[in-house]
From TrEMBL:
InterPro entries: 6-hairpin_glycosidase_sf, 6hp_glycosidase-like_sf, Ssp411, Ssp411-like_TRX, Thioredoxin-like_sf
Pfam name, any one: Thioredox_DsbH
UniProt xrefs under SUPFAM superfamilies: Six-hairpin glycosidases, Thioredoxin-like
GO terms classed as biological process: carbohydrate metabolic process
CDD domains: SSP411
Signal peptide span: none
Gene name for this UniProt entry: Spata20
Domain spans labelled Spermatogenesis-associated protein 20-like TRX: 7-168
Stated name of the protein: SPT20 protein
């Protein structure tokens, strides 16, 4: 590449997204006091642009507008321009996205917002094309019009921004009203199930026609609904909906059949043509949900998908020090000589390429059959490409194929006169060869930022998979990542989490000059991960750290007047609103997960005020849970756990003994959403005994490992057989 002609202040940042814009013609500032002071001193409006490094339309707007000399000059003359990485600063993103959604009816990234010098928004949108079109006003025109408004109608703009802020404060205020209590579990669960059932796609699974998102929160809810309604037709339907969706996703093009892992979402109803970026938070949640599918069904198909996801993350999203990177981009150069990136270029194939790579005849198959014939049939490859032109408006995928398993292994095997086991081996051979060929292509951009929250989700994925699949290596990988968090994203002096760290030169781990403090989601997802890791490893230091972080979360984020937790802590004057998320989306909202965290924390510590706090969160969200529970399926699930009370499964026995291991295997192999597991014997059990005095009264029967299932610290009869224990674990 040639030497860049421009360099702005973003060159001093660590965020890969901000560094992508360090050579734009725009004189970008990072979010901070220097930019705010400049806007006030020069009496200039602020243009705020928010995105992330693997965002396709962020790249498009950069190429079209932020690299344009003419548009850059307009921006620099009339505005103080600020760039924010939404993954580094979710607090800033949420404040202004709330504004954009309220005023435009939609949202997304890149987010473009115009602010007064005191940071109040008055105009905004998402992507703008550079010039006026038939249906859209161009970015250049918008910039000039807003600059003119500021010159000629400054007072009206300031007044308008104040009114908008007051309205946002009012509409975004989630709090307990009067004497509200947690809503009844049955009605909320049933309503949520009915709403999901109505939006369910009977043919292809999922909960919309298109675009189609994985939504692990919906599937998690359906598994819990099934567990609590096993003998009812509604329970059977909930299970069928979840398992069918997971199968169709795994067969679809949203699943990378060569490089493993899952892409962000499908642009069509069939899970076929994805938006190709890969996000860590999807891999973590999907590893956990496919592990549960395996627990429930016993079907190795789901276990294989778990292994596939974790192979991808271990190979491509893992830092040598133990942390997990954030994402891989959708766009890449098709060849080493290409000048322009294309979406999906790293992942798609022409029929011609596949025939050249897989030419060998298949012994024992119908005469004349080659490896390419078998592979192309199984994965829906067509000579002219298999992508619907309607799903490819920019013709980036013309003539290309996105692999999708159209039928079962058994059907393909029958078509070519092969045994299913032989076909699986052949497909594996093809995948290995194509993987080697793909490795020669230029890789997509890797966002090597490491976030506490997303690392927490991935630790949960590894820990739950390790327990459900009895794979100790996955538990060890989860523990390695947790140790990474404790070293690099935790300040032992203050007892607080940090938000992010970064891969530096020579694979070192670097921190910003002024580290970003952890947000609510960082605490919630890390605490959940540490509970999951304790249950998988029985290493009590993870439990101790989780309880410490829960106390810190209470101190930093709890709203003592309106109840529930704020997304960000108090005290930052640049944040105009202190918000509480009210929707489970690509990730569950932190208040949803924290209800279950608090119930688990109470079971491990005996602190019943955490149960009370969980109830207060449900009370604060009561109206939303009763009217539109489909927006909060994870919190609905937590409502059921709150009312059903968690079961403490206590095992007394030598952790290394075979009888204890058999009991633990039983607990890990059963899907029981309302259990917490603890082992009351062994070297590291002292902490639990100090927290829970009732454990001292439990003992092994006849010298054998013995399990007690307890509720509210009262225990049922002891059992010494895994078979009996399995029966007691049903909700």
């Amino acid at each position: 590449p040639s030497v860049p002609r421009h360099t702005n202040r973003l060159i001093n940042e660590k965020s890969p997204y901000l560094l992508q814009h360090a050579h734009n013609t725009v004189d970008w500032y990072p979010w901070g006091q220097e930019a705010f002071d400049k806007a006030k001193t020069e009496n200039k409006l602020i243009f705020l642009s928010v995105g992330y490094s693997t965002c396709h339309w962020c790249h498009v707007m950069e190429e079209e507008s932020f690299k344009s000399k003419e548009i850059g000059e307009i921006m620099n003359e009339h505005f103080v321009c600020i760039k924010v990485d939404r993954e580094e600063r979710p607090d800033v993103d949420k404040v202004y996205m709330t504004f954009v959604q309220a005023t435009s009816g939609g949202g997304g990234w890149p987010m473009s917002v115009w602010l007064t010098p005191d940071l109040k928004p008055f105009a905004g949108g998402t992507y703008f094309p550079p010039e006026d079109g038939i249906h859209r006003v161009g970015f250049r025109t918008v910039l000039l019009r807003i600059a003119e408004q500021w010159r000629e109608n400054k007072d009206a703009l300031l007044e308008s921004s104040q009114r908008i802020l007051e309205a946002l404060r009012h509409t975004s205020d989630i709090r307990v009203r009067g004497q509200e209590s947690p809503p009844p579990a049955k009605e909320v669960m049933d309503t949520c199930f009915q709403q999901l059932s109505r939006s369910y796609d009977e043919d292809y699974g999922g909960f919309s026609k298109s675009p189609k998102f994985p939504t692990p929160v919906n599937l998690n809810f359906l598994f819990t609904y099934w567990a609590l309604h096993r003998t009812a037709p509604e329970g059977a339907r909930a299970l069928q909906m979840a398992l069918h969706t997971l199968r169709m996703m795994a067969h679809g093009g949203i699943h990378d059949h060569i490089g493993q892992g899952f892409h962000r979402y499908s642009t069509d109803q069939h899970w076929h043509v994805p938006h190709f970026e890969k996000m860590l938070y999807d891999q973590g949640q999907l590893a956990a949900i496919y592990s549960r599918a395996f627990q429930i069904s016993g079907d190795e198909f789901f276990a294989d998908v778990v292994r596939d996801i974790l192979l991808y993350v271990s190979r491509d999203l893992s830092d040598p020090a133990g942390g997990f990177y954030s994402a891989e981009d959708a766009d890449s150069y098709p060849t080493t000589t290409s000048r322009e990136k294309r979406e999906g270029a790293f992942c798609v194939w022409t029929a011609e390429e596949l025939r050249a790579l897989l030419p060998e005849p298949v012994e024992g198959a119908t005469e004349g059959t080659t490896l390419a014939d078998v592979f192309m049939h199984h994965y829906g490859v067509e000579e002219a490409g298999n992508v619907d032109p309607m799903k490819d408006p920019h013709e980036e995928l013309k003539g290309k194929n996105v692999l999708i398993a159209r039928g079962s292994v058994e059907l393909t095997a029958a078509r070519f006169g092969l045994e299913p086991a032989r076909l699986r081996a052949l497909l594996h051979q093809c995948q290995h060869r194509l993987s080697s060929a793909r490795a020669q292509r230029p890789r997509p951009h890797l966002d090597s930022k490491m976030l506490a929250a997303w690392n927490g989700l991935m630790i949960s994925g590894f820990a739950q998979a390790g327990a459900a699949l009895a794979e100790q290596g996955y538990v060890s990988r989860a523990a390695q990542a947790a140790a990474f968090l404790r070293t690099h994203l935790f300040n032992p002096d203050s007892g607080r989490l940090l938000r992010s760290c970064y891969r530096g030169k020579d694979n070192s781990v670097e921190q910003s000059a002024v580290p970003i403090q952890g947000f609510l989601e960082d605490y919630v997802f890390v605490i959940q991960a540490l509970f999951d890791l304790y249950e998988a490893s029985l290493e009590q230091s993870w439990l101790e750290w989780a309880l410490h972080l829960q106390h810190m979360q209470d101190k930093l984020f709890w709203d003592p007047e309106g109840f529930a937790y704020f997304s960000a802590e108090a005290g930052d004057p640049s944040l105009l609103l202190r918000l509480k998320d009210d929707q489970d989306g690509a990730e569950p909202t932190p208040n949803s997960v924290t209800v279950t965290n608090l119930l688990r924390a109470a079971c491990y510590s005996g602190h019943m005020d955490w149960v009370e706090k969980a109830g207060k969160i449900l009370a604060a969200f009561s109206e939303r849970l009763q009217k539109i529970p489909i927006t909060l399926p994870e919190m609905v699930r937590a409502t059921a756990l709150f009312h059903h009370t968690l079961k403490q499964v206590v095992i007394c026995g030598d952790p290394q003994g075979e009888d204890t291991k058999e009991m633990l295997h039983c607990v890990h192999s059963v899907f029981s959403p309302n259990k917490v597991l603890m082992v009351a014997d062994g070297d590291s059990a002292g902490f639990l005994h100090r927290q829970l005095p009732f454990l001292a009264s439990l003992e092994r029967k006849d010298g054998k490992a013995t399990a007690y299932v307890c509720s509210n610290f009262s225990c049922f009869l002891p059992v010494t057989s895994a078979q009996e224990l399995r029966g007691m674990l049903s909700p």
